[in-house]
Amino acid sequence: MKKLLLSLSILLGTSYLASAQLIPNAQFGLKAGVNLSSFSTNSTFSSDKRAGYLGGVYARIGGLGFNFQPELYVTGKNLTIKDGTNENKAKFTSLDVPLLLGTKVGAFGFGGRFYAGPLVSFNINEDQSLGQGLSDAVTFKDYKKQNFAAVVGAGVDIRDFSVDLRYEAGLTKQKYNDGNSSIRVSLFTLSVAYKLFSL
Predict the structure, then answer these.
(1) Domain residues of the chain, as ranges?
(2) Which residues form the Outer membrane protein beta-barrel domain (predicted)?
(3) What is the pLDDT of residues 31-79, one digit of tens each?
(4) Three-class SS of the chain
(5) Which of 50, 60, 82, 173 has most Cβ atoms within 10 angstroms of its Cβ?
(6) Is the pTM of this model over 0.85?
(7) pLDDT band for position 114 (50/70/90)?
(8) pLDDT tops 60 at residue 21
(9) Beta carbons within 10 angstroms of residue 84's beta carbon
(10) Per-residue model confidence (pLDDT) at position 152
(11) Given this model, what pLDDT does residue 195 score?
């Protein structure tokens, strides 16, 4: 009898672990976090890292052991640029759209995720409002004027909460100082997400 119960428990546990990874599912939620900006220039300027923020929404669609995670959030990127004794502060605000592909390990509401993918960043400034940035993101308007990055990261899921740590490597340069200078932005991001519902 004990062997039968043990065999049944192993069979059910294995079946659950397999189905948790293979059965298609989807979830939607909110996320917020902080970033630490790292700026690379090809000039004699040096740059200090400063904290920024992000806040928005995410979706995760999974099945067959993989998941696709598109996100949409507003992010603020800050820096201090030093040129000898002079010190200037610059701020970038953008609407970011990462499109991440990854895999997950674990079950029973707990697990780890690994992912990578591209990110497109739509600038929001005095000439472009959040609504205009959102419109550009949906229609992919003027994509040549936007900034692109590559994202790699890992996350931990604990029931309805997720904690993510990622690195965003800037691929294009962003203009600052009235368009007279440009820099490539890279970020370390730590965020917390809350699942609102799942299907």
Answers:
(1) 24-198
(2) 25-173
(3) 999 998 765 555 544 555 667 899 999 999 987 778 999 999 999 887 7
(4) CHHHHHHHHHHHHHHHHHHHHHCCEEEEEEEEEEEEEEEECCCCCEEEECEEEEEEEEEEEEECCEEEEEEEEEEEEEEEEEECCEEEEEEEEEEEEEEEEEEEECCCCEEEEEEEEEEEEEEEECCECHHHHHHHHHHCCCHHHCEEEEEEEEEEEECCEEEEEEEEEECCEEEECCCCEEEEEEEEEEEEEEEEEEC
(5) 60
(6) no
(7) very high
(8) no
(9) 8
(10) 97
(11) 95
**Can you tell me which residue has the tokens 């993918």?**
117
Would you state the structure tokens that stand for residue 136, as one six-digit string? 């550009």
User: Which residue, chain included where needed, has tokens 């965003």?
Assistant: 168
Using an 8 Å Cβ cutoff, are 33 and 61 in contact? Answer: no
**CATH architecture of the domain formed by 24-198:** Beta Barrel (2.40)
